[in-house]
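Entry type: protein chain
Record version: 2
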Amino acid sequence: MTDAPTDPALDVEPDLPGGDCKPGQKCPAAGDCDESKWFKPASLGGQYHKGIGPSQSNYNGSREKEDMDFTAEVSGTVGVSYSGEITTKISDVVTEVNMKFGASISMSMTAKLGNTVHVRDVPPHRTVHAQYGVWRRKFTGTAYWQHHTCYLTKNKVTGYGPLHVGWYTWDS
């Protein structure tokens, strides 16, 4: 997967309820505002692996290429994680990210016990490492909250949403 294309229009602030209301200011309109909360996705980043259980490794001490198998010894569930303050339900955030970027982020995924990966043709005197878990996609955006007093707050958010269960393997 690749990062979303950069588009200058994506950096524009959304249309805010209350017209010219700016973050941290009281709206000029008379009376109270309707309280509302929303999330505006800004970017979709790369994939990152969240391991379940310990990583495994195996050394090929022979003079020939060797095949290796690694089997998941634990299971676990990985959900959406984020830093920053989200003002809406996390399910709404995931929906907004998926709609804006055509992504397929989930609320959570379970990596199950017993899954096996086969690594072929490991060179002599190399160690292969394997970690079972969930691949996640990074996203960023802004959470908005227009209070009933017309005061607007916004918070930058960075999050990771589950994409698929799988292995991360590397050698050293």
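Comment: Residues 31-171 form a domain with the Proaerolysin; Chain A, domain 3 fold (CATH 2.170.15).
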